[in-house]
Amino acid sequence: MRVAIAGAGAVGRSIARELLDNGHEVLLIDKNPRSIKVDSLPRAEWLLADACEITSLDEAGLERCNVVICATGDDKVNLVVSLLAKTEYGVPRVFNESWGVDVAVSTPRLLSALVEEAVSVGDLVRLMTFRQSEASLVEMTMPDDAPLAGSRIGDISWPADTALVAILRAGRVIVPQPDDPLAGGDELLFVTSEDVEQELGRLLAGHSGAA
């Protein structure tokens, strides 16, 4: 997957590092020469340019990107880049760094996790970790051939310290009930302890671990 990040400051570089470690291609764009720190992320592509300019985005090859992340620290710039990415280049997924959450999260970690979630089917993705415990919010999109597809929620032996809190299906948010069956394509949201994430991943899709 190819990801362009507008803004190569501390947040942008942290997101890039997460994505590079997960095997993705990353292009960092910034108009400030002091932010172009190639040695800090030699595996990334770097572009000294104004991400609000069409010519810059043409040079970046934005039409070839699967995801664009706007992390400039300037809401107006982020909005412009988001609109250009969507309307001019047809980028499927565009993310902004502004989040209104009440739990202690790492913005780079959350953004990179959301990118993973947007394109990953059959992989457990950790979205955030809660401040007062070792519990995490994790997500998985079930593939059509998942072992548990068609199973009643109440019949599944979930790992200890694991709660299925919501199912996203066909644009609806479903509060899980014991008689509800799981289906391929369901986005499942769990609160679980980090030490059983691998077990949960194996149960759901034969995979282990959270991205």
Strand line-up in the sheet with most strands = 3-2-1-4-5
Poorly predicted runs of 5 or more residues = 99-105
Helix/sheet category: alpha/beta
Net shape: elongated
Ends distance: 15 Å
Mean pLDDT equals: 84
How many whole angstroms does the radius of gyration measure? Answer: 19 Å
Tell me about the largest β-sheet.
5 strands, parallel
Helix and strand pattern: EHEEHEHEHEEEEEH
Please explain how this structure is put together:
The chain has helices at residues 10-21, 54-60, 75-87, 107-119, 197-205; strands spanning 2-6, 25-30, 45-48, 67-70, 93-96, 125-129, 135-141, 162-169, 172-174, 187-193. It has 211 residues and is an alpha/beta fold. The strands form two sheets. It has a five-stranded parallel β-sheet with strand order 3-2-1-4-5, sandwiched between helices. Strands 6-7-10-8-9 form a five-stranded antiparallel β-sheet. A hairpin with a 5-residue loop joins strand 6 (125-129) and strand 7 (135-141). Helix 1 (10-21) packs across helix 4 (107-119). It is elongated and about 55 Å long.
